[in-house]
Automatic annotation (TrEMBL):
This is Tetraspanin. Signal peptide: none annotated. The keyword Membrane applies. The lineage of its organism: Eukaryota, Metazoa, Chordata, Craniata, Vertebrata. GO terms for molecular function: lipid binding. It comes from Pluvianellus socialis (Magellanic plover).
Length: 216
């Protein structure tokens, strides 16, 4: 059940419309940074393996098989190690993920402002960011003074002044988006780790109980 819940949460995060709209973008030959998906794929793998390992543990308990329970324990130790490694990776990269996406957005924004023709897709990339996150520009102050600002890059709310007043900075929205998603991943990882610890303890207790009972 825990594996199924983790798998469901991971698949929901993987197919969330906001992140997929942004992370599937391509600026010329450059793909949007998708480091965020590494953590998601780890969760998907852990959830799927947990479901299989859970079945192995249940079957081993029903059959009172020390071999199956020992295998169950070993698999849990490996999964727990992967979980800790993924948690450390996520903690180290939590700021870098948002930073990479912001840099990608800034490059697209500059291309959208400078382009005299429609030969590049910078404008389309920027509009996708603005519409998905309901934001306007990398920094409202920069956008307000830029002579190259294009009103049609922002969600249509009337005048450009109204756009700047009512829309948040896209840098801020990107930070909020990924910090919220990484927060969910962190909660899921902690829940899984706690469940795994209890599973390892109980499987060893049961395995020892079966071994002791077989003596008599």
């Amino acid at each position: 059940l825990a594996g199924g819940i983790i798998l469901g949460v991971a698949l929901w995060l993987r197919h969330d419309s906001q992140t997929t709209n942004i992370l599937y973008l391509q600026l010329g030959d450059k793909q949007a940074p998708n480091t965020f998906y590494v953590g998601i794929y780890i969760l998907i793998a852990v959830g799927a393996v947990m479901m299989f390992v859970g079945f192995l543990g249940c079957y081993g308990a029903i059959q009172e098989s020390q071999c199956l329970l020992g295998t169950f324990f070993t698999c849990l130790v490996i999964l727990f190690a992967c979980e800790v490694a993924a948690g450390i990776w996520g903690f180290v990269n939590k700021d870098q993920i948002a930073k990479d996406v912001k840099q990608f957005y800034d490059q697209a924004f500059q291309q959208a402002l400078m382009a005299e023709s429609e030969t590049n897709n910078g404008k389309a990339v920027v509009k996708t960011f603005h519409e998905t996150l309901d934001c306007c520009g990398p920094d409202n102050a920069i956008g307000a003074v830029s002579p190259l600002w294009r009103e049609d890059l922002c969600p249509n709310k009337g005048s450009i002044l109204k756009n700047l007043m009512e829309s948040s900075s896209c840098h801020k929205k990107i930070d909020e988006l990924f910090s919220g998603k990484l927060y969910l991943i962190g909660i899921a990882a902690i829940v899984v780790a706690v469940i795994m610890i209890f599973e390892m303890i109980l499987s060893m207790v049961l395995c020892c109980g079966i071994r002791n009972s077989s003596v008599y």
